[in-house]
Design brief:
Strand order of the largest sheet: 1-10-9-6-7
CATH topology: Phosphatase 2c, domain 1
Largest sheet: 5 strands, antiparallel
CATH architecture: 4-Layer Sandwich
Shape: globular
CATH superfamily: PPM-type phosphatase domain
Radius of gyration: 17 Å
Number of strands: 10
Order of helices and strands: EHEEHHEEEEEEHHHHE
């Protein structure tokens, strides 16, 4: 399988919470099919951090670049190293006035990512958001990378924290051909509250439509409309990002 044989569609929309306060969308996503590995990353910047949009962009771009040709035998170490590179970029960032560990908290963001090569894959995850691997439109068997929150449900973890390594989680999977990564703005549509059950009534129509719509522009337009409809905004006014990938 060549990475060029993976169909990928992704979109990010600004949530009502940020638009009503005249704040920018703080989600970001990126993927790569240029190396030996397929890599996809999404990130949700913390609303309380003043430069979180930058933190989300930096982690997505850094991990995508550094993991595209990472060797599978050292893949977890490669992920950790790439995150440390992103953290170092934030230490030296012009908006980090202190140029130290404390200053990078202003760039706080989560990570939901995946690496896939020759039928085997790995989710890596810090904070909330979620990822799922399954086959075609069959949701009877799947692998989920679940969100992780703090003591309070509204608290989560970020790669900018000093203890980020303790909160970096890995989930291996194999023999799946369809993958969806999403930020926290979509998880309550996609899973039960305990994340033990998939809401196929939401994910299945999206997956089926994206798989069968040959025109990318039409697929993205419909996806944006689905994520940004008034009912969805009422349920969860947060920014929303989804990345869908299918091995053809």
């Amino acid at each position: 399988m060549r990475n060029s044989e993976i169909k990928v569609l992704s979109t990010t929309i600004q949530g009502l919470r940020n638009s009503s306060r005249n704040m920018p969308c703080q989600d970001y996503c990126k993927h790569s099919t240029k190396g030996k590995n397929f890599v996809a990353i999404i990130s949700d910047g913390a609303g309380s951090a003043k430069h979180s949009k930058i933190g989300a962009r930096v982690i997505c771009e850094t991990l995508t670049d550094l993991l595209a040709n990472a060797h599978e035998h050292n893949i977890k170490k490669s992920v950790a190293f790439a995150i440390e590179v992103a953290r170092d970029k934030l230490r030296r960032h012009r908006l980090n006035k202190t140029k130290d560990e404390e200053g990078i908290n202003d760039f706080a963001a989560t990570i939901v990512g995946m690496i896939y090569c020759r039928g085997k894959g790995l989710f890596f995850h810090i904070g909330d958001g979620a990822a799922i691997a399954f086959n075609n439109n069959n949701f009877d068997k799947y692998t989920i990378s679940k969100p992780e929150n703090g003591f309070f449900s509204c608290e989560t973890y970020f790669y900018t924290m000093n203890d980020w390594k303790e909160n970096l989680r890995f989930t291996e999977f194999k023999n799946f051909n369809t993958f969806i990564l999403m930020t926290d703005g979509l998880t309550n549509f996609s899973f039960s509250k305990d994340f033990n059950t998939i809401q196929a009534g939401f994910l299945s129509p999206i997956n089926d439509f994206l798989l069968n719509e040959p025109v990318k522009a039409k697929a993205l337009k419909a996806l944006k409309k689905t994520l940004g409809n008034p009912k969805a905004e009422k349920i969860n006014p947060d920014d929303k990002t989804i990345l869908w990938a299918k091995v053809l």
